[in-house]
Amino acid sequence: MCEVVMEEQEREISDIDPQEYSSVAENGVMLVVNHSRAPAPFSVVLATVLYCAEFVTAAVLSSMYHKTDDVIWMAFTIVFMLLPAVLIQLALTFIHRDLGRDRPLVLFLHLLLLGPVIRCFDALVVYFKAGKKEEPYVTISRKISLKKGQKTPMELEIGQSERNLATHRNAFKRTAVIQAFLGSTPQLTLQLYATIQEKYFLPVRLALMVITLISIIYGALVCSVLAIQIRYDDYKVRLRPLAYLCMIMWRGLEIATRITALVLFSTALTHWVILVGMANLLFFFFLPWAEFWAKKGSLTENVEKNFSKLGTTVVLCMFTLLYACINVFCWSAVQLDLSHRELIERKQRWDHLAIYYCGRFVENFLLITLWYFFKSDFYEYVCAPLLCVQLLVCYSLAVLFMLLFYQFCHPCRRLFKYNVHDCLHCVCCRKGTGGGRGRQGRPPTSYSTAATMVLAPEEPLELLDSQNSHYPNSSQLGERETAIVDDIMEAA
After folding, report:
1. How far apart are CA 48 and CA 296, in angstroms?
2. What does the DSSP 8-state code read for residue 475?
3. What three-state secondary structure class fits 470?
4. How far apart are CA 156 and CA 169, in angstroms?
5. DSSP secondary structure letters along 297-330
6. Does pLDDT of 26 surpass 50?
7. Which InterPro entries would you find in this protein's record (predicted)?
8. pLDDT tens-place string over residues 215-233
9. Within a 10 A sphere around the Cβ of 355, how many other Cβ atoms?
């Protein structure tokens, strides 16, 4: 897993010899950019604030449960508070490789569950010291910038400070996901269930529910952004505020609807919700392993060089557990490939995405319907049919915002061949004349440059050379431009 983290860091900061591309830079194809100051580590600060706020609020609520002799609520609250905290300490120590370094104070603070705090402080010190004195760049990151449909290759000079900040950001991305789906999600489900059972709002409990919801949405956003960065590692990905707003609505409605459906079902059929949760968890846990065994692949050896086969299997099982916990509540945005050295399948499986959301909609509908028929007298003052319709509409709106994101807000939407409108039109007109088959082998002429769903299939270099007469601008980037085709999605 540590090697996977290093692989992703090398996507952002590539160790490239500047002399190798000096001629390209002189010809004006590569654009060299000097960074005078590293970007602020806002994501590190936000993840740390959410971690501390949730931990402190959960501790206060546990003490209140202890005073009122609510042993069950107290026990589960403490478990969902400590489990992600311990895993976060292990993840940070593992990513930064502190066990082989002489840093006793840092390791001691990790034992006190204060690892994110000292890491955040370290990142802020690095940020405020950066730029005060000129430092030579240590690496060069090569990216392709997409602006107004133009592909501009860039070489970014990376200093030591910016590289250290990139390490902190990559580490806190993992902690945000762990915190969200191994701690915040079950914590929010528990506290919402306790609120309904006790029939009153406790201010501390309400505050904890709000914090956990924010943490879950942030963790889901991190998953979506990581998926985009992994698939388009050759490109400098920048999301606009409208894209973040669209993703927040998409993830917020999806997660809130899912948790509400599970909690309502649990109030009517308490024991059956355990079966539903375990079935979901086990299905998504064994799905990557079933695909791995079906491919007859071998375990990757790049998780950690010092690990044995048993150690590698344990790490992969923990990674798969996190993947399963994410998919229980929302779409993970990535698919695991345990035989691949990066553990992530580079191609976007739109058929899996469609099956997931259709299946999840049906499951939520069944859970809400069963709750409607077996609900308790507590809901006699609630318009149950209206609540059921509202939940289904909210989940439909989540899917709508997802489609809007890929149609208009996806940062790499101009790299695809078909957009959402084309795919929907293709489905609706499947029984038509079938004139779309004649497009094969001809260059696309009228496809929109808005957010799209499917990339063009990969073509060999010989075929690309034979088509240069049709694409006079494609020869400017040469073989470098063809590198983007490695991450293409399957055709619709």
Report:
1. 41
2. G
3. coil
4. 18
5. ----S-S-TT--HHHHHHHHHHHHHHHHHHHHHS
6. no
7. XK-rel, XK-related_adapter
8. 999 999 999 888 888 877 7
9. 11
Extract the tokens encoding 244: 């973040």
Contact 158, 9 (CB under 8 A): no
Structure tokens at 137: 């760049």
CB environment 9-36: b (16+ within 10 A), e (fewer): bebbbbeeeeeebeeeeeeeebeeeebe
Q: Which residue, chain included where needed, has tokens 């319907």?
A: 369
Cα separations in angstroms, 435 against 245, 426, 429, 440, 492: 38, 11, 10, 10, 16
Q: Which amino acid is located at 48 in the chain?
A: T
Find the angle CA(401)-CA(406)-CA(412) to the nearest 5 degrees: 145
**Where do the structural domains in the chain lie, given as residue ranges?**
21-238
- Amino acid (1-letter code) at residue 391: L
Instruction: Return the H-helix or E-strand segment holding 170.
Output: helix 160-179
Alpha-carbon separation of residue 83 from 3, 282, 310, 373, 466 (angstroms):
24, 19, 23, 36, 58
**What single letter denotes the amino acid at residue 356?**
Y
The pairing of strands 31-34 and 139-147 is unpaired
Q: Transcribe 94-107 into DSSP letters.
A: HHHTGGGS--HHHH
| Best CA proximity match to 7, nearest among 101, 116, 95, 91 | 95
Q: Tokens 């991190």 belong to which residue?
A: 222
Residue 420 to residue 406: CA distance in whole angstroms: 7
Q: Encode pLDDT of 47-62 as tens digits.
A: 999 999 999 999 999 9
Token couple for 255 = 């997660």
Determine the Cα–Cα distance for residues 223 and 413; give it in Å rounded to an integer.
18
Q: Is the full-model pTM beyond 0.85?
A: no
- Both tokens of 490, joined, read 């399957």
Q: Any residues with CB less than 8 A from the CB of 171 and at least 6 apart, and which? A: 5, 91, 92, 95, 96, 119
What residue type is assigned to position 233 of the chain?
D
Q: What residues contact residue 383 under an 8 Å CB cut-off, 6+ apart?
A: none
Residue 339 is encoded by which pair of tokens?
């035989």
Per the CB < 8 A criterion, the answer to whether 16 and 154 are in contact is no
Q: Calculate the alpha carbon distances from 89 to 28, 61, 84, 111, 112 in Å.
A: 46, 23, 9, 8, 9
Which residues make beta-bridge pairs with 143? 154
Cα 335 off chain centre by: 11
